[in-house]
Structures are given as structure tokens and as C-alpha cells.
Amino acid sequence: MISIYLKNRILKNILLRYLIPTIFPVILAGCHEDFTPDISTKPVLCLNSLITAGQPINVKVTRTWLYSDSNSSDNHSVEDAIITIVVNGEAKDADYVPKEGDHIHIAADSKTYGHAEADVTVPYAVPIKSLRYTPFVTDIWHYIDQYGALNANCDFNINIELDIADAPGTDNYYKFSEAPFNNTDPKSQPNEDNEDDDGFSHVKVVGTSHFFTGTFDYDAEPIFSEHLGVFDSMMTGGAYGFNYFTDRQFSGSTYTLHLHYSACSYNLVMPSWNPDLIDFGYTFTLSSISKSYYNWFNYKWQIDEGVIGDLADLGLGDPVWGYSNVSTGAGVVAAQTFITYTLNLKDFFVSLIQQ
Counting Cβ atoms within 10 Å, is residue 180 exposed (0-12), middle (13-18) or buried (19+)? Predict the structure, then answer.
């Protein structure tokens, strides 16, 4: 026979382990109240501008609003804002085109929302000294179809080494990006239906081509993870989506970016083989960016991808304040200068077809 003590222990365990966790959320779900928070805050001006060397300056002026103010969420423009642009100590018109090294001061004034200002210096471009690449073919096929057209496809991975010559004496910040180009125009005949004496229609093929850049491996280049600590790396699984970096590890010297792309592909349909028409590859862009641009994207990445944002969302950490370099604490004024470098993969592909 089970003792009364043991029975009570069993009942208590059942209550603690099953009943309370089940009932407690139901009880809490019934305890709620709608209320409008009485927050004493005054809207302020918000400045946003990404200044690019060689392009006119565009400044967007808005204002802040309460999260619960749905009307202001739909319309937070500032109609009476007056914008002032000062470059290297001299006032400039709105059509001024900034140059590398320009120190730019932007201010906005509104009778309704007050004053806001921010400063930024347009960075100097940093050259890409050289580039080396090594492709690894995973699949290749080509054949001549019934219309005499060449059909070809190449799947490959590629390792790229890109050398950056950092300028000494300043703290530099960078953004890396790539885009495909595919200028192949394999058309050598019009797309027409021709009926021969046999009464059958014979199509003259119009060529097509497509280049897929593949999947970029952020783990192949450790500098994209320099903003992460050990705990961040463990929790986030890497720097996916963060293509920004600084020169803290190579100030005033040359650094080699190690870029790896997997599952790349190039396919082609060409009415007749003409290697002179092949033209495809990568366009790499290296942007020298202001500290404010780097800080803003670092904050954005931490909120969207980092462990800090996850902990804050779960209530296990303090909310993360948004980044701003504007006097009112609202908005970001940033600057960039970029250069491009083209990697043409024509010779690589042509050598495979002509083997």
C-alpha cells in the first residue's frame, strides 16, 4: 500500500510538472488591458543622406513620431524644412557634385521641429592592385543540336584573390560587392521560320546566354567576421550578409581578400560557334565608406542577424539603440567613393569548349 506521504509527493509532482505549466499561460492570457502610453516626447528632425563622390547630394528630411501614431507613420514629411549644405567651409547649391576629401556639413531648420545637423568627409578611393582566380569545373557539356546550334553549359566553383592597397595615416572602412555581367550577344542569324521544298518549317535559332555568379562563402574570408566576438560567432554561425570591413588589421599595407563562390554556372545557345562573341564574368566594387556608414550597417546587421537583436527580441537583453550621427539622434549622414574591377571569364569558358 502506498503511504499517504508518497501519494502526496506523486500528486505534487504531477501538479508542478504538468498542470501548472498548462494552466498558467491560460490564466495570463486572460489578463490584458488596452492602454495608450503617455510618453512625453517631442518630434525632432531626421536627416538621411548617402553622399557619393561624383554624384549630386540628395538629402531627405523627415521627423520622428511615436510608434502608436499611425497617422504620422503614413506621413512624416516636413514641409517647411530649409536645407543648408556647406562644403569645406563654403555654402554650396543643391546641384554641387562632391569630390573625394570634401568635408560636408548638412543642416536643416524647421519652425515646427527645430534644427538638425551632421558632418561627414567623403573618403578617398582605394585601388584594387591585382586579381587572381582559380576555377574548379564540376560539370561541363556541349553539343550541336538538330538545327546546327551550339548548346553548352559549365558548372564550376571559383576562388578569387583580390589585393587591396590601403592608404596609411587614416582609419579606413570598406564595403565589398559583386555583380554579374553577361554581354554575350550570340545572335548571328534572324529568328525566322523558313519552309523548304519538303513543306516542313525549319527554325533558325537565336542564341541566348546566362551567367549565375554562384553562392558567396563569407567564411572563406575572415575579415568579414572581424566585428564578431567568440560568443557572437558561436551563436550566429558566421558573418552571413556582412560584406563590410575595416583596415584595423592591415592599416597602410596591402591586404588580399579571399573570395570563394560555389555552384556558379554559365549556359549558352549559339547558332554557330564564335568565341569572339563570348563576354561574361564578375564586376567587383570596392567602396571606401565613412565611419558613419560602417557603424550604421553594423548596427543593422546586429539587429537583423546578430545575437544581440535576438536576445533583445526574447526579452533577455536590453533593447539596442539605433545608430545615428545626426545632432538630434535621428538619421544617418554617410559618404562613399567606389571603384570597380572586372573579371572576364571568356578565356576560361572558351578553352573548355575548344578542348
Answer: middle
Query: For residue 99, what pLDDT is reported?
Result: 97
In the chain, beta strands by DSSP E: 45-52, 60-63, 82-87, 90-92, 103-110, 114-121, 128-144, 150-165, 173-182, 193-195, 201-203, 208-212, 215-216, 244-246, 254-270, 280-289, 333-344
pTM of the model: 0.80
Strand residues in 183-253 grouped as ranges (E): 193-195, 201-203, 208-212, 215-216, 244-246
88 C-beta neighbours (distance < 10 Å), count: 12
Q: Cell numbers for 261, please give them.
A: 563562390
Could you identify the residue written with the cell 546587421? Answer: 301
Q: What is the pLDDT of residues 20-56, one digit of tens each?
A: 455 545 545 555 555 555 566 789 999 999 999 999 9
Q: Calculate what percentage of the chain has a pLDDT beyond 90.
A: 57
Distance CA 306, CA 316 (A): 14
Among candidate residues 152, 172, 153, 156, the one with its CA nearest the CA of residue 164: 172
- How far apart are alpha carbons 297 and 323 in whole angstroms? 9
For residue 17, give the DSSP letter: I
Per-residue burial over 159-171, b if 16 or more Cβ lie within 10 Å, else e, is: bbebebebeeeee
pLDDT 10s digits, 187-228: 544 444 444 455 544 455 567 899 999 999 998 999 998 877
The pLDDT of residue 41: 74
Cell of 87: 562644403
pLDDT > 90? residue 119: yes
Q: Mind listing the pLDDT tens digit for each residue in 181-192?
A: 998 766 544 444
Q: β-strand 45-52 against 333-344: which pairing, if any?
A: parallel
Q: Which amino acid is at 206?
A: V
